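Session log. Operator J.P. requested a structure for one protein chain; no other inputs attached. Running the standard single-chain path with token output.
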Amino acid sequence: MTEPRWLDDRRQRSWRAYLAMNSQLTARLHRQLQADSGLSLADFDVLVQLTGRPDGRVRVLELARALQWEKSRLSHHIARMQRRGLVAREDCPDDARGAYTVLTPLGRQAIEQAAPRHVETVRALFFDQLTAEHVDALQAIAHRVLSRLEDNAQP
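Structure written below.
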């Protein structure tokens, strides 16, 4: 068995700062979105996926992959959103086991009303503190890490 490659102090401080930032930022975005629109951050994520499609519909498994959610989590969340009238479910005509999640007019209205205030909160809490160079570095870092994750490379 090989020894763990422990993080040095600099990397450990950076990692812990990233984790704290991610946790606090996510919590603040969720609370603000909930207060402004009654939508959860998870609701918003689902609605963003649907509004990004020309016909406002996506296969359930494709949506689960895009959100990186377990199928059961997505199923429960979609059921809650469906009860609120934000989305609908439709059977897939060419696959008896498949289904679509479909954006409803109420769901479109909800995200259109929530998006302006949400983007302002994202700017205020995140981007307004960064220089153009910070934004470029963040994008480069994100692309490197995402590329590694997409390659399914083992650490």
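Operator note: Strands lie at 57-59, 87-92, 95-103.
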